[in-house]
Structure formats: structure tokens, C-alpha cells
């Protein structure tokens, strides 16, 4: 697959914050699925200074881009968190193109939101949980899965798509998702 900005550079598969993405070695843009972006934002393992440094070099791609997967014109969507750039999205196959520095800017901005701060507090509380309390939590989760196996799959699916807020963040930290 070719980079939608450079048009001649082949995209390379790589890992970013534990998520598989494609990157352009020339312009440092990222091609990824929408749910991959959510996982990256929630990972919060990259150093904040490094994120800020990379985000400062951000350049929005000019004009209309063609989706490198299905070759349909991508639409420009305003970036969340009050950021002043656009994200290129494919309405057909649902992938995103983030120009160089945009993924870092999004991740840095997310880490400043109340939801991210709450998630960090939950992860910290989970890490500090004593052994007996952790065993109780594990038993309760196992009981819930036995009692409502079909609903459990549904809830886990919805939680992975960010529909259960703080509870999903606790489950994320527990299961390492």
C-alpha cells in the first residue's frame, strides 16, 4: 500500500503503543483503523515530552487524499480535543490517515482530558490493590461471566468500543487491553 501523501512511498507495518499500524517512512504519517486510535490514546506509555516534541513538527496534508486501500476520496474531519487540524477519514473502509505529528498531538491532548486522568487514577488504584482484594475481584469477574455468558460477551464488546466509561477503563487495566 502506498502513502496517500507521498504517493510513491510504500507504507511499512509497525507497532505504535502496542498497536499494529502502517507508517510512511518518508512523511511519518500513520494509517490505522479508528479502534486502533482509541487503543493508542488509552495506552499512555510514551513520554509526554517526546509526544510534545513530535506533535510540534505536525504538518497537515494539503488537499484531498485518496484512501490507499480503496482509492476513494478521503474526507477531512476536525480533530477532537479542540486541536486545530483535520484527520483524513475513509467513509468506505473506515481507516484514518494521520499526518506526521498528528497521532502524537492526539495522544498528548487525550492525556489531558478528565477521562484520561480518571483512567490513570483507576490504573494506579488497580496496581496498588492488595493480593486478597485482587483475588476477590478475579472471583467476582469469573462469577459474572458464568451468570451472564451471552451478556458478558456483549458487554465486553461494548466496553472495548468505549461505551462503559470508567468501568471499561478498569476492565482495560485489569485485562491489559
Tell me about this structure.
The chain has 177 residues and is an alpha+beta fold. The protein is built from seven helices and six strands, in the order E-E-E-H-H-E-E-E-H-H-H-H-H. Strands 1-2-3-6-5-4 form a six-stranded antiparallel sheet, covered by helices on one side. The protein is elongated.
Question: How do you describe this structure in short?
Answer:
The chain has helices at residues 34-43, 48-56, 102-110, 114-127, 131-147, 149-160, 165-175, and strands at residues 12-16, 19-23, 30-33, 75-78, 86-89, 95-98. Helix 1 (34-43) packs across helix 3 and helix 4 (114-127) crosses helix 7 (165-175).
Range of strand content: 5-15%
> Helix content range of the residues, please?
40-55%
Largest β-sheet summary: 6 strands, antiparallel
Distance between the amino and carboxyl termini: 28 Å
- Uncertain runs are 157-164
Order of helices and strands: EEEHHEEEHHHHH
The residue-averaged pLDDT reads 76
Q: Could you tell me the radius of gyration in angstroms?
A: 19 Å
Count of discrete domains: 2
The largest beta-sheet arranges its strands as 1-2-3-6-5-4
**Which descriptor suits the 3D outline?**
elongated
Beta strands, count: 6
Structural class: alpha+beta
User: What is the helix tally?
Assistant: 7
